[in-house]
């Protein structure tokens, strides 16, 4: 099935732009409840699967041995803005693991927000690896590697024992065959594996329900999911969809962005997993789709619906703040959600 128009961007009475993509919603029993587009096409989930990549930190006992807090566990699942709180949490994980910032192999990155960038410039400094939006995940990697006695240098390589373990986790949770032909390198230098959208949704249904996995693994994922719900700021930051949605809904909805128009969610109360991929990589498209899904499935009040309208029907404004159009769900998506 060709990818559908999931989002329309209007100006005046006309549709000016369209975001095509695919979406799958899968329940705990493995039944696909909603499917639009090429849901069997492998896509790189990128940062959307960080919660699964953090499993070795929990399952090896490294998190407990280091005494990591809930906020620190949340930042290991994060794609953060590089704000002071994010940097401090990642630095604290490294300190508890007995490692220096130089152990991080994610590379330096400027923080996302102007005030944090200005703070670095005013200090006549440069951003470091701790400012990288993946620094929390990498600090967790370092903590796990040191605890398991694996080589620290090169922990990002595809053949490193940690990355082999993560490969096996992703393959097991998604049921996908992750061979060399679907392997790429993520922006933070670790391997990223292309996985069909429907299989990603199934993995997030497992995250929501614990179905189909050993009790110890289900407990580890629940621990990470609850940490993110308790500390949503650590997962993303100021003015970010992930943080705002989890701050509003708490444990009702775990949502996580991935680069290039990917968004995934686990809805524990419903036992559902959601995976979205926007063809052109536009975050505004993936956020609008996820907001529409949440409006349909978890919004219970006018306050919930109004909150989600910030993304599901985001206004297109002029430089003077005049509303010129709307970013809205496309007809195929709206119809499919109405039929759920």
Written overview of the protein:
The chain contains 15 helices and 12 strands. It has helices spanning 50-53, 55-59, 62-66, 70-75, 84-97, 114-122, 135-148, 161-174, 197-209, 215-230, 232-235, 241-249, 283-297, 302-312, 331-338, and strands at 4-11, 14-27, 32-36, 42-43, 183-185, 191-193, 195-196, 254-258, 262-267, 272-278, 314-317, 323-329.
Labels describing this entry:
340 residues; alpha+beta; Beta-lactamase; eight-stranded antiparallel beta sheet; two-stranded antiparallel ribbon; globular
Q: What percent of residues are in strands?
A: 15-25%
Shape descriptor reads globular
End-to-end gap: 19 Å
Which structural class should the secondary elements be placed in? alpha+beta
* Total number of helices: 15
Report the radius of gyration as a whole number of Å.
Answer: 19 Å
Low-pLDDT stretches: none
Look up the CATH topology: Beta-lactamase
- Describe the main β-sheet briefly: 8 strands, antiparallel
Output the helix-strand order. EEEEHHHHHHHHEEEHHHHEEEHHEEH
CATH class: Alpha Beta
Mean of residue pLDDT values: 97
CATH architecture field: 3-Layer(aba) Sandwich
How many DSSP-defined strands?
12
Count of folded domains = 1
Helix percent reads 40-55%
Write the layout of secondary structure elements.
Layout: E1 4-11, E2 14-27, E3 32-36, E4 42-43, H1 50-53, H2 55-59, H3 62-66, H4 70-75, H5 84-97, H6 114-122, H7 135-148, H8 161-174, E5 183-185, E6 191-193, E7 195-196, H9 197-209, H10 215-230, H11 232-235, H12 241-249, E8 254-258, E9 262-267, E10 272-278, H13 283-297, H14 302-312, E11 314-317, E12 323-329, H15 331-338
Antiparallel strand pairs: 1-2, 1-12, 2-3, 2-10, 4-7, 5-6, 8-9, 9-10, 11-12
Helix pairs in contact: 5-7, 9-10, 13-14, 13-15
